[in-house]
Each structure stands twice: as structure tokens, then as C-alpha cells.
Here is the input.
Amino acid sequence: MTKEKAQARREHLARMRAEQKRKERRTALLMWGIGGLVIVVLAGLAIVYVVKDRSTKSLDAVKSYTYKGSDHSWDPITYKETPPVGGQHNFYWQNCGIYDKPIHNEHGVHSLEHGAVWITYRPDLPKADVDKLKTLASAEYMLLSPYPNLPAKVVASSWDHQLTLDGADDPRLPAFIKKYKQNATYTPELGASCSGGVGTTADQKPLPPPEGQGTPSPEAMPSASPAAS
Here is the structure.
């Protein structure tokens, strides 16, 4: 009888151990399954984030044009684009920097020829947004000015390229600046100066040379690097 009890006890313990192992295997499989599901979900979220981030910064909407450089004139010029992105322009370029009033198109285009990015905004853009644009435009080869009758709240222009934007927070703006400012492929006069030109706004100084003076002599032209014209 004692042997039978001992055998029964051993069998009972064996069944308990077997059941415990089965529970442990089920728990392990469940944990692995949950872990795998979490990994899949996280990977999916990461992919969605990357795709969304790329889409918000996509420059697919950039419009491209084809204008030759080094085409100068003292006369006022009518441009097809608003604001212009290239073409004939004044002999004087606009000094890169921040302006609180509109500048002459003809000077701004010359700055684009030197590799600048020109950010324009509607005059009624909220001050907070303008301040954000000023922060972006505080770097070299950046030009910022208000622009009446702009087709969008903000427009970023470089030589032969332009992008309309929803506002100062549009993530495509920094991407545009990074790609097109001083771009060796698109800049007609890469390395030319963006200072030493005109530092006045359109209301401060008329575009043509003063009446009776004709075309200024070379000595009267702004100083620039040898690549500038």
C-alpha cells in the first residue's frame, strides 16, 4: 500500500510538472507573440511617420523655369512670375538681408542670380509668422521682403525655382532653402557677392538711374567678386 501511494505521488508530481511546463510554454509563446506584435506595430508607426515626414517636406511642388543669366538692363522689367524667379534684371543686386518694405524686382532677381533665396510674404502676414521668417532669413545669401498681391501667404524663390507655401511654419521652407541656396547646379553666378549692392527699398529709391545721367560708369557699379556682373 505504501508503494502504491508513493507511485501515485510520483505520478501526480510528474503530471504537475508536465502541466507547469505546458503553462510555461504557453506563456512564453504568448509573450513572444505579444512582443512580435508590438514590434510590428512600432515598425508600422515608424514607417508611417517617415512617409508622412517626407511628404510634408517634399519639394515635388517646386516649379522650375529656364532663364539665362547675365542679362542686364537699366529699364523697368515686367516679369511673368510673381515674384520673379529669373530673367533680365538690373545691373545692381539687392544686398541680402531683411527688409520691412517691398524691394525692386529687378534688384531681387539679380540677387537670385548670385545664389540667394528670396522669401516673400503677404504684407498682412501675422507678425509672429514674419518673425519666424526673419529668423530663417538671418543667414547668408537670404533675402526677405513683403510683396503685395502675392499668390500665397509665403513664396520662396531661387533662380529658376519657386515654391508657394502655406505659411512660416511650412516644413518645406527649410528644405527649399537647404536645396536651392547657393546651389552649384542652378546658380548662374555661384560665389558672386550678396553685399555691396543696393540696400534701399522700392519706396526709398527709384529703379532707373537719375534722369540725365545715363548709364553709370564701371566705377559707380557695386563691388563684387569676379564672378558677379
The longest strand covers residues 117-121. The longest helix spans residues 2-56. The CA atoms of residues 30 and 36 lie 10 Å apart. Residues 1-56 form one domain.
